[in-house]
Design brief:
Blueprint lengths: L1 H5 L2 E3 L8 E7 L5 H6 L5 E16 L2 E15 L6 E15 L4 E6 L4 E6 L5 E3 L4 E3 H12 L38 H4 L8
Parallel strand pairs: 5-8
Antiparallel strand pairs: 1-9, 2-3, 3-4, 4-5, 6-7
Length: about 190
């Protein structure tokens, strides 16, 4: 089964009834989706993708649970400075071998609709194998922060001169008024009595 793990596939007939535990380190280049994330230059991954997982057969299904870790260098969303960020994400996915569609009554449509494997939150075993590449790539993407910060109190960049306010003192006198909002500066609001 060593070749299957190297290909990031596991043959379902090789999974014993008590389950299968796997650990591996794979170079980032093995994961095309992760490679695509680096093209804009805002993130770069260093070191291998480290994954540990358990595949457990249960009543015709295969439960895959695990954890993925990878080191990254990512740009701060406030100051744009790159910083090292270890990423880690737990994942769980249930695979099925032959379930195609299930009928379910949809009250909104007042009709019976077919639910696909994906609609039920399941993944399909293809050609008798579980593709671990897909689930690991998805876990890495889910581990990425929505708004990466180099530190919680990052002051960001000056909107006028672009100085990194974490390192430099800004010499701007004050933010110039956006000309589109100049009319609002002239607006007089009456005082309440």
């Amino acid at each position: 089964m060593g070749d299957d793990v190297a290909n990031l596939f596991v043959e379902v007939h090789d999974i014993p009834p008590q389950g299968l535990d796997l650990e591996f380190r794979e170079p980032v280049q093995r994961f095309p989706v992760i490679g695509e994330l680096t093209k804009d230059g805002n993130i770069c991954f260093s070191g291998p993708v480290i994954a540990s997982l358990r595949i457990a057969p249960e009543k015709g299904l295969f439960l895959v649970q695990g954890r993925v870790e990878i080191e990254s260098e990512i740009s701060c969303c406030r100051c744009l400075a790159p910083f090292r960020q270890p990423l880690a994400e737990a994942f769980a996915l249930t695979y099925t071998v032959g379930l195609s569609e299930v009928d379910r009554f949809d009250p909104a449509k007042d009709a019976v609709v077919d639910l696909t494997v994906e609609d039920m939150g399941l993944a399909l075993v293809r050609n008798g194998r579980i593709d671990l590449l897909e689930v690991i790539q998805e876990a890495v993407v889910m581990a990425l922060p929505m708004r990466p910060l180099c530190r919680e109190d990052c002051k960001g960049l000056c909107p006028n001169c672009g100085a990194d306010l974490n390192r430099d003192k800004c010499t701007c006198a004050g933010a110039p008024l956006d000309p589109r909002l100049a009319v609002l500066a002239k607006l007089k609001i009456p005082e309440r009595e």
